[in-house]
Amino acid sequence: LPNGLSPAYRQLNCDDPETEQAALLAVDYINSHIHQGYKHVLNQIDKVQVWAQPTGESFKLEIDTLETTCHALDPTPLANCSVRQLTQHAVEGDCDVRLLKQNGQFSVSFVKCKSSPDSAEDVRKVCLDCPLLAPLNDTRVVHAVEAALAAFNAQNNGSYFQLVEISRAQLVPLPVSVHVEFAVAATDCVAKEVIDPAKCNLLAEKQYGFCKATLTEKVGGEDVAVTCTVFQTQPVVPLPQPDGPDVGVPGPVADAATPEPSPADLPVASLVVGPVVV
Amino acid sequence: KVAHPNTAAAAGPVVRPCPGRIRYFKI
């Protein structure tokens, strides 16, 4: 810009259709670039600034999102994903987004998000008995996931599935139990024939799954019930380039292999395995 | 016709540009 001139600024309302279009595109972009945790939906647009650029306009947005029940690897379209309710201990995301609008087309140039669960006090306000989110590295959580995955593989006639990440966990007081959700991926081993799981490798054409399980403590033992949904295989795609936009809705981190990116518009899950109840 | 400039301004809808509407719930 010439000295003494400030860039042209355009006032836009947060609920303006143009702002919403930009925000929804940003949310789609986020969901197609995260590989951990859950997909998010747009909840509120906090702020919008529009500046003139030599080749178009620059949009700077602050948006609030809410976690859905669809895992990031789940190809279900976002419109079909349910928002995680307050009673399930909701999680919100706060994102700073920048987009360019050139020739009427938006493109995302920068995204930075952080996510945080609702406070325990807020959950208690709507439900006294609702279990709160538990740390994913809690020994009871890890044990429940291991038991559930072992139970699933024991009943599975196909590939051996490996843990990708633990995505959610809740400790339930009565009956004493642990509810967990985790992502899995198919390997080149056959589930019934595995001797050393460490020697199994993820398939080149990735096949992910998402499991929900409950491990209930009983006198003299425990029961585990697990249901896994295995998604359609995903074609091999190149890894993201290092100079690409910085994107992420930080979710819970697990000790697992990082999956490769998946296209955002894959067809809905085509295969459901389970429930396997042991 | 009598104009009441003071009251006319107060009677109109207040447009708050930001933040926008909450689609689900606020936490």
Structure explained in plain terms:
The complex is a heterodimer of chains A (278) and B (27). Chain A is built from 3 helices and 10 strands; from the N terminus they run βαββββααβββββ. Chain A has helices at residues 17-33, 120-126, 139-155; strands at 9-10, 38-53, 56-71, 91-102, 105-117, 159-172, 177-190, 208-218, 221-230, 271-277. With 27 residues, chain B is mainly alpha-helical. The termini of chain B are far apart. The relative contact order of chain B is 0.13. The chains are: A mainly beta (278), B mainly alpha (27). The A-B interface holds A 11-15, 19-20, 41-48, 64, 66, 83, 86, 90, 92, 118-119, 122 and B 15, 17-27.
DSSP strand tally of chain A: 10
Number of helices of chain A: 3
User: Which strand order spans the largest sheet of chain A, edge to edge or round the barrel?
Assistant: 1-2-3-4-5
| H and E order of chain B | H
Q: Hey, roughly how much beta strand do the residues of chain B contain?
A: under 5%
What is the averaged pLDDT score of chain B?
Answer: 72
Q: What value does the Rg of chain B take, in angstroms?
A: 16 Å
Task: Identify the quaternary structure here.
Answer: heterodimer
Uncertain segments of chain A of ≥5 residues (pLDDT<50)? 242-278
Largest interface: A-B, 24 and 12 residues
Shape of chain B: elongated
Secondary-structure map:
The complex is a heterodimer of chains A (278) and B (27).
Chain A (H helix, E strand, L loop, with lengths): L8 E2 L6 H17 L4 E16 L2 E16 L19 E12 L2 E13 L2 H7 L12 H17 L3 E14 L4 E14 L17 E11 L2 E10 L40 E7 L1
Antiparallel strand pairs in A: 1-2, 2-3, 3-4, 4-5, 6-7, 7-8, 8-9, 9-10
Chain B lengths: L4 H7 L16
